[in-house]
Specification:
Distance between the termini: 71 Å
Number of strands: 9
Structural class: alpha/beta
Length: 357
């Protein structure tokens, strides 16, 4: 009996200690200390910077990744995990605002906002950046290896339909990018709400099926680097990674136009450590941090001060830092609403199912 009582007392003591530690870790909403949980895209931050942030602030970072904007929002909406930071794209920020899933940014806690290029502030998806802070930006285009293609280039989207590319094209597993490519190839907006245009784009994509080797995600990088694939629809930063590993690879945004995208840092409404979240955002906007992060990730930074610290050959490369004139021919994804987004997803699934026939 005595041993049972002693065991019970020990359990109570240990439980009390664990509860105290948990409370200390999570009371950062006032002190800025404790821990934060960051929810980001895969391979989208230099891991050394997480360690540096922890050392400088004393705030522990729990880091998780997601594959799609829709999956990210769904998990935040469910509320199972209290994320303090997430990194949605522009159209998803609009959707999260509509669903009241975001907290407003307190810019008195983010002095490093002064380093952001004004071009990337006060955009239509978040006027006055009430809920979001620019993180990375880029384009959607075509990565290709001319040495595997007898010198073929890709000035137009229609070049992907060339019969010589049978089983040589990789597409990203994303409805907005792939359906958008089909729309752009027809001269339509990648934000089209016209069901006739969407049907026409889907049917044209079906005609591309013989050329499609696979519809995948991040795996495309290694396939291109290892010369196992010759052409891929991809994001500019992913193309930069390919080009770093394989100098034969090139990247182009077709003349018809494409997507100009923005990923921003936000604070979900369920955040527990709001001060810690602001500290993280301000840290990521430090010019030296932003420059190091851009070098590691490969995407374009909106941080003007960081550009001065980076390799001039990189920041002067219009494939990855298109000037304002070039950007004027690109489109930003709009929030199409859940119903129409469902149509895009259904048509994309129809296209993928048709490939298997």
């Amino acid at each position: 009996m005595k041993s049972i009582i002693q065991s019970a007392i020990l359990i109570l003591i240990v439980s009390g200690i664990l509860l105290f530690i948990n409370a200390e870790l999570n009371k950062g909403s006032k002190s800025g200390k404790g821990m934060i949980t960051v929810y980001n895209w895969g391979e989208y931050i230099d891991p050394d910077l997480i360690k540096q942030f922890e050392e400088e602030t004393g705030i522990k970072v729990i880091y998780e990744t997601f594959d799609t904007n829709e999956g990210m929002m769904s998990k935040i909406e469910q509320g199972g995990t209290s994320y303090d930071i997430s990194v949605p794209s522009e159209y998803m920020i609009e959707m999260m605002k509509e669903k009241d899933l975001l907290l407003p940014i307190d810019y008195s806690k983010i002095p490093n906002i002064k380093h952001i290029d004004p071009y990337f502030l006060n955009l239509a998806f978040d006027p006055n950046n009430k809920y979001s802070v620019p993180y990375f930006w880029g384009t959607v285009g075509i990565a290709f290896n001319p040495t595997l293609l007898e010198g073929q280039t890709f000035e137009n989207w229609d070049d992907l339909w060339n019969p010589s590319l049978k089983q040589r094209v990789i597409l990203v597993d994303s409805a907005r990018e792939t359906i958008g490519m089909g729309l752009n190839s027809l001269g339509y907006s990648l934000n089209s709400t016209d069901l006739g245009e969407l049907r026409e784009a889907t049917d044209k994509l079906k005609a591309l099926s013989p050329n499609v080797k696979a519809v995948i995600g991040d795996e495309v990088t290694q396939l291109m680097v290892n010369n196992e694939a010759a052409v891929s629809l991809t994001w500019s930063g992913q193309a930069a990674d390919m080009m770093y590993e394989n100098e034969d690879i090139d990247y182009v945004v077709p003349e018809e136009g494409s997507n100009l995208w923005f990923d921003n840092l936000v604070i979900p409404k369920t955040a527990k450590n709001i001060d810690g979240a602001h500290a993280f955002i301000n840290f990521m906007l430090d010019p030296e941090v932003a420059a190091q992060n851009a070098d590691y990730v490969g995407y374009s930074t909106p941080n003007l001060s960081a550009l001065d610290l980076m390799d001039p050959e990189v920041v002067e490369d219009k494939r990855f830092y298109p000037d304002e004139e070039m950007r004027s021919h690109l489109e930003v994804y709009k929030n199409l609403g859940l119903e129409l987004l469902g149509v895009y997803n259904e048509l994309f699934l129809e296209f993928k199912m048709d490939m298997k026939k």
